[in-house]
Amino acid sequence: MPIMAIYRSKEVDREAFNRYRAEAPIEPAPEGAIVHQVAFDEDGLLVIDVWEDEAQLKAFNESRIFPALNRLGITPVEPKVLQVHALWAAEDASRRNLAAPAPNPESVSA
């Protein structure tokens, strides 16, 4: 059964996220990943992922995500995990992929 992982962090702004993505690119898509979405609002970072199952999410977090965050001095956040009740995507959804911008070179050493 697919799961949805929801991450929230006031610590991570757009530039910190871009540094993280340069440190731990998500491409190629990890085994079991279905959807990855990132947005920012007045409360900071919001990430919503959909995975085939929670075991694949945990394995990816432990092998790639949390080590990269630790290298950058960013506190890893455990996601809220929910069972997906319904999932719909346009047939050509991959055409709408939007990559995170490269980090500002001045902030890479931060």
The CATH topology is: Alpha-Beta Plaits
- The top-level CATH class is Alpha Beta
Strand and helix order: EHEEHE
Relative helix content: 25-40%
Shape: globular
Head-to-tail CA distance between termini: 40 Å
Structural class, judged by helices and strands?
A: alpha+beta
What is the number of strand segments?
A: 4
Helical run tally: 2
DSSP strand content: 25-35%
* Spatial strand arrangement across the major sheet: 2-3-1-4
Detailed description of the structure:
This protein is of the alpha+beta class. It has a single domain, classed as 2-Layer Sandwich (Alpha-Beta Plaits). 25% of the residues lie in helices and 25% in strands. The protein has helices at 14-23, 54-71; strands at 3-9, 33-41, 44-51, 80-83. The protein has a four-stranded antiparallel sheet with strand order 2-3-1-4. It is globular and about 40 Å long.
Short summary of the structure?
The chain is of the alpha+beta class and 110 residues long.
Strand and helix map with partners:
Layout: E1 3-9, H1 14-23, E2 33-41, E3 44-51, H2 54-71, E4 80-83
Antiparallel strand pairs: 1-3, 1-4, 2-3
Task: Considering the chains and any ligands shown, give keywords for the structure.
alpha+beta, Alpha-Beta Plaits, 4-stranded antiparallel β-sheet
